[in-house]
Amino acid sequence: MNKIFVLALGGAAGTLSRYWLSGIAQRFFGASFPMGTFAVNMLGSLCFGLLWGLFENRVGFSPELRLLLLTGFMGAFTTFSTYMFESGALLRHGQYLSLLLNVGGQSLLGLTLVLLGMALGRLV
Protein backbone atom coordinates (compact mmCIF):
# COMPACT_ATOMS: atom_id res chain seq x y z
CA MET A 1 0.00 0.00 0.00
CA ASN A 2 1.23 3.51 -0.79
CA LYS A 3 2.88 5.16 2.24
CA ILE A 4 1.29 8.54 1.53
CA PHE A 5 -2.18 6.94 1.42
CA VAL A 6 -1.51 5.09 4.70
CA LEU A 7 -0.37 8.32 6.38
CA ALA A 8 -3.33 10.27 5.02
CA LEU A 9 -5.80 7.63 6.17
CA GLY A 10 -4.30 7.46 9.66
CA GLY A 11 -4.00 11.25 9.83
CA ALA A 12 -7.63 11.80 8.86
CA ALA A 13 -8.80 9.29 11.48
CA GLY A 14 -6.57 10.85 14.14
CA THR A 15 -7.73 14.38 13.35
CA LEU A 16 -11.40 13.43 13.46
CA SER A 17 -10.88 11.49 16.70
CA ARG A 18 -9.10 14.43 18.32
CA TYR A 19 -11.86 16.82 17.27
CA TRP A 20 -14.59 14.49 18.55
CA LEU A 21 -12.97 13.59 21.90
CA SER A 22 -11.84 17.13 22.61
CA GLY A 23 -15.32 18.47 21.98
CA ILE A 24 -16.96 15.89 24.23
CA ALA A 25 -14.50 16.50 27.08
CA GLN A 26 -14.83 20.27 26.78
CA ARG A 27 -18.63 20.16 26.84
CA PHE A 28 -18.61 17.77 29.79
CA PHE A 29 -16.12 19.73 31.93
CA GLY A 30 -16.96 23.28 30.81
CA ALA A 31 -14.91 26.12 29.44
CA SER A 32 -12.94 27.16 32.53
CA PHE A 33 -10.02 24.80 31.72
CA PRO A 34 -8.88 23.42 28.34
CA MET A 35 -9.93 19.90 29.35
CA GLY A 36 -10.50 18.81 25.74
CA THR A 37 -6.84 19.28 24.87
CA PHE A 38 -5.76 17.87 28.22
CA ALA A 39 -7.85 14.72 27.72
CA VAL A 40 -6.58 14.19 24.17
CA ASN A 41 -2.95 14.66 25.23
CA MET A 42 -3.23 12.25 28.16
CA LEU A 43 -5.12 9.58 26.20
CA GLY A 44 -2.72 10.05 23.29
CA SER A 45 0.27 9.51 25.56
CA LEU A 46 -1.24 6.31 26.96
CA CYS A 47 -2.16 5.00 23.51
CA PHE A 48 1.25 5.84 22.00
CA GLY A 49 3.01 3.99 24.81
CA LEU A 50 0.64 1.05 24.51
CA LEU A 51 1.12 0.78 20.75
CA TRP A 52 4.89 1.16 21.02
CA GLY A 53 4.97 -1.56 23.68
CA LEU A 54 2.90 -3.86 21.48
CA PHE A 55 5.03 -3.24 18.39
CA GLU A 56 8.44 -3.31 20.09
CA ASN A 57 10.35 -6.53 19.47
CA ARG A 58 7.30 -8.34 18.11
CA VAL A 59 7.01 -10.03 14.78
CA GLY A 60 3.76 -9.92 12.89
CA PHE A 61 3.12 -6.18 12.86
CA SER A 62 3.77 -4.84 9.38
CA PRO A 63 5.66 -1.60 8.79
CA GLU A 64 2.47 -0.26 7.17
CA LEU A 65 0.46 -0.90 10.35
CA ARG A 66 3.08 0.88 12.43
CA LEU A 67 3.08 3.78 9.96
CA LEU A 68 -0.73 3.94 9.96
CA LEU A 69 -1.11 3.89 13.75
CA LEU A 70 1.97 5.57 15.19
CA THR A 71 2.82 8.17 12.56
CA GLY A 72 -0.52 8.70 10.85
CA PHE A 73 -3.17 8.29 13.55
CA MET A 74 -1.18 9.24 16.65
CA GLY A 75 0.66 12.05 14.83
CA ALA A 76 -2.64 13.68 13.93
CA PHE A 77 -4.37 12.79 17.21
CA THR A 78 -1.65 14.49 19.26
CA THR A 79 2.04 15.22 18.82
CA PHE A 80 2.19 15.61 22.59
CA SER A 81 2.44 11.83 22.86
CA THR A 82 5.59 11.82 20.72
CA TYR A 83 7.01 14.66 22.80
CA MET A 84 6.40 12.64 25.99
CA PHE A 85 7.72 9.41 24.44
CA GLU A 86 10.95 11.15 23.40
CA SER A 87 11.25 12.75 26.84
CA GLY A 88 10.78 9.32 28.43
CA ALA A 89 13.55 7.92 26.23
CA LEU A 90 15.90 10.66 27.43
CA LEU A 91 14.99 9.82 31.02
CA ARG A 92 15.49 6.06 30.50
CA HIS A 93 18.93 6.72 29.01
CA GLY A 94 19.97 8.96 31.88
CA GLN A 95 20.22 12.06 29.68
CA TYR A 96 18.86 14.38 32.35
CA LEU A 97 20.17 17.66 30.92
CA SER A 98 18.70 16.83 27.52
CA LEU A 99 15.43 15.89 29.22
CA LEU A 100 15.28 19.25 31.02
CA LEU A 101 16.15 21.12 27.83
CA ASN A 102 13.52 19.20 25.87
CA VAL A 103 10.66 19.57 28.36
CA GLY A 104 11.54 23.06 29.55
CA GLY A 105 12.61 24.31 26.16
CA GLN A 106 9.58 23.10 24.25
CA SER A 107 7.17 24.26 26.93
CA LEU A 108 8.63 27.71 27.63
CA LEU A 109 9.87 28.46 24.14
CA GLY A 110 6.68 27.09 22.61
CA LEU A 111 4.54 29.33 24.82
CA THR A 112 6.76 32.32 24.06
CA LEU A 113 6.56 31.69 20.31
CA VAL A 114 2.77 31.30 20.37
CA LEU A 115 2.48 34.65 22.15
CA LEU A 116 4.97 36.23 19.73
CA GLY A 117 3.08 34.82 16.75
CA MET A 118 -0.20 36.18 18.11
CA ALA A 119 1.34 39.61 18.59
CA LEU A 120 2.82 39.58 15.08
CA GLY A 121 -0.47 38.39 13.62
CA ARG A 122 -2.29 41.33 15.23
CA LEU A 123 0.21 43.78 13.70
CA VAL A 124 -0.30 42.51 10.16
From TrEMBL:
Q: How is its activity regulated?
A: Na(+) is not transported, but it plays an essential structural role and its presence is essential for fluoride channel function.
Residue ranges annotated as transmembrane are 33-55, 67-85, 97-120
Membrane-topology descriptor:
Multi-pass membrane protein
State where Na(+) binds: 75, 78
Looking at the UniProt record for this protein, which Gene Ontology cellular component terms does it annotate, in alphabetical order?
plasma membrane
UniProt entry tagged with the keyword Transmembrane:
yes
What keywords appear on the UniProt entry? Cell inner membrane, Cell membrane, Ion channel, Ion transport, Membrane, Metal-binding, Sodium, Transmembrane, Transmembrane helix, Transport
Which GO annotations describe the biological process of this protein? cellular detoxification of fluoride
* InterPro entries noted in UniProt: FluC
Where's it found, cell-wise?
A: Cell membrane
What reaction is this protein's catalytic activity? fluoride(in) = fluoride(out)
Q: Which domain of life is it from?
A: Bacteria
An example of a GO molecular function for this protein is:
metal ion binding
Question: What role does this protein play?
Answer: Fluoride-specific ion channel. Important for reducing fluoride concentration in the cell, thus reducing its toxicity.
Q: Which PANTHER family match?
A: FLUORIDE EXPORT PROTEIN 1-RELATED (PTHR28259:SF1)
Protein's UniProt name: Fluoride-specific ion channel FluC
The top of its lineage is:
Bacteria, Pseudomonadati, Thermodesulfobacteriota, Desulfovibrionia, Desulfovibrionales
- The gene name reads fluC
